[in-house]
Amino acid sequence: MSNIKYILGHFEDPDDLMHGIDKLQENSVSIYDVYTPMPIHGIEDKLGIKRSRLGKVAFGFGLTGTITAISMITYMLVIDWPMNIGGKPHFAFPDFIPIMFELTVLFAAFGMVGTYFFVNHMAPGRAPRVMDLRASNDRFVIAIDARTNTSHDQIDNILKEAGAVEIKHNERKYVSYE
Amino acid sequence: MSSHHESILREPLVTGENITYSKVTEDILVPVENKPNKAWWIGFIVSALGAGLWVFSVSWTFWFGIGEWGLNKTVGWAWDITGFVWWVGIGHAGTLISAVLLLFRQNWRNSINRSAEAMTIFAVICAATYIISHMGRPWLFTWALPLPNQFGSLWVNFNSPLVWDVFAISTYFSVSLVFWYTGLLPDIATIRDRAVGTRRRVYSILSFGWNGSVKTWQRFELVSLILAGVSTPLVLSVHTIVSMDFATSLVPGWHTTIFPPYFVAGAIFSGFAMVQTLLLITRKVMNFENYITMFHIESMNKIIILTGSIVGVAYLTELFIAWYSGVEYEQYAFLNRVSGPYWWAYWIMMTCNVISPQLFWFKKIRTSIALSWILSIVVNIGMWFERFVIIVTSLHRDYLPSSWVMFYPSWVDVGVFIGSIGVFFTLFLLFLRVLPAIAMAEVKLLLKSSSDQAKRKLIAEKAVDSGEAEYYLESLEKYDSISPKVAEYQKV
């Protein structure tokens, strides 16, 4: 048993990468993940990745913001300290709309981005889990778990035929740890 | 998919030969990964001196109070609020480019959004400093926030547009910052993976551990889209609310329902002018000509002429409505603007904002870098005068002729204003040094579909109509700085 943990197929072109994914899937090789320097459109469908639910998260946070704003303003201006401003109603709803809107946006944006960082395990100072340093520059990298896909030579050949410019057999999962 | 080709008739968004993914990285990171050149140092020293002047003038204001400004009992708002509105307006173009153009799928935004967003953030910082310093007792700024206090609690008045403005500006600033920083993460990761030693550690912290996996990118794109979706109404609301600071008052000249759309158009107008001012220099000094092309410059000029014309219509509408309303105070306010003691400010505004941008109808002018730059400065000057005209000429002759005065700025006013420009440029120049000024990941997206190189390949493969190909090459030669070698392709 070799010590190889991951096989990385490097591609120079996103179309070749897509082709590579197709070929691997045809041969029932499971793909661990794909690392790219830019978003590749259509790759989620290929890899069977579900639609992100962050939109719903944003909506939920936005609604929280709206409710926070209206309850805060109503409490302060209507319940806690009603002020007579020219005999106008205390609950001056149209005047509350701008701040309701602002807090909706504020909560939606921060809530969604916070959730995004949370689900992706991103935080300042978090050690980057990078399998190949060029994946953020000019290489499109397919990572294959070498333990579960044992026919390494076959995988190498598939990748090569699909147009991989470099194939790496890594004994460490993340190269970014020093 | 990335291999989709777009029409050959569309101008390329990335020019130059042999542009590969790694060349994009190399080109854009030159200023970040190398020692700054002389031009940068000169600019930085001058800006830092300006920022120093700002610190001095603002400290002076804090110490002695706003009596040190040229304000008097009639003109209670002058250069401070002029400067505030000017900076907020400038900030708007960044959000427009990053959010509105994203929603409209305008791919040309990809290479200018990063620096435009940075500009937004720095401009809003400048605007916010005006707000704090015009408070007189800035340490009491918390009184503008609905915080429990010892007076009751006496809450802020949520019916007041000034309170709306506190919420609008702070939401705008923080959401813009989040939008900008989220977009920066993949590019910071690129710098991190190329760097060694301390640099690597610093960028590693800043990168939040970005790794570019499929799921990260998928969510990233959705987050960008939704942030764009919420930022678009946000940016409109911000300047609407800024304009309501004036419009909901009863001062003739301010009490106008046209203010919200007029201010928003003016904001986009001045913002694009500032983007133009900055980018025309940045692309030259940083050698970004292949990424910020003549097409980008021309597109921005087109937006300047559109918004400039909207602003022009708004000016004329104001005059018409003042006459048509039959209210003599309103009529006098506008007559005084056009022909009163501040007539020169009004006509500088008219000339710079309405008349000179019309020159952009000529393609020759629209595609001239020098003229675009000069006109962008002219627009910035004009937009500063617009705010000055609205604020000072409406105030200086109020209902009581015995209190009619003129406004004369003191050196502190001038110091704060020039200083704020210094602060802005200091921040912008630092940004150019430490972060990529062009969104690398987004430019890489364009490489296979919208680059000149990809289009040349199509022509060489005879995949496109020859008439269309000829049109493409001709328009490149005619208007862009790059040489397309038409002759070489005529054989094809």
Explain this structure.
The complex is a heterodimer of chains A (178) and B (492). Chain A has 178 residues and is of the alpha+beta class. Chain A is 47% helix and 11% strand. Chain A has five helices and four strands. In chain A, strands 2-3-1-4 form a four-stranded antiparallel sheet. In chain A, helix 1 (14-26) runs antiparallel to helix 5 (152-162) and helix 3 (54-80) packs antiparallel against helix 4 (93-119). The mean pLDDT of chain A is 88. With 492 residues, chain B is an all-alpha fold. In chain B, 70% of the residues lie in helices and 0% in strands. Chain B is built from 18 helices and no strands. Chain B has helices at 21-33, 38-64, 79-103, 113-133, 161-194, 197-206, 214-247, 259-285, 294-325, 328-339, 343-355, 363-366, 369-395, 411-434, 440-450, 452-460, 466-479, 486-490. In chain B, helix 7 (214-247) crosses helix 8. The longest helix of chain B is centred in the middle third of the chain and has 34 residues, at 161-194. Chains A and B meet through helix 1, strand 2, helix 2, helix 3 and helix 4 of A and helix 1, helix 5, helix 6, helix 7 and helix 15 of B.
Quick structural summary:
The complex is a heterodimer of chains A (178) and B (492). Chain A has 5 helices and 4 strands.
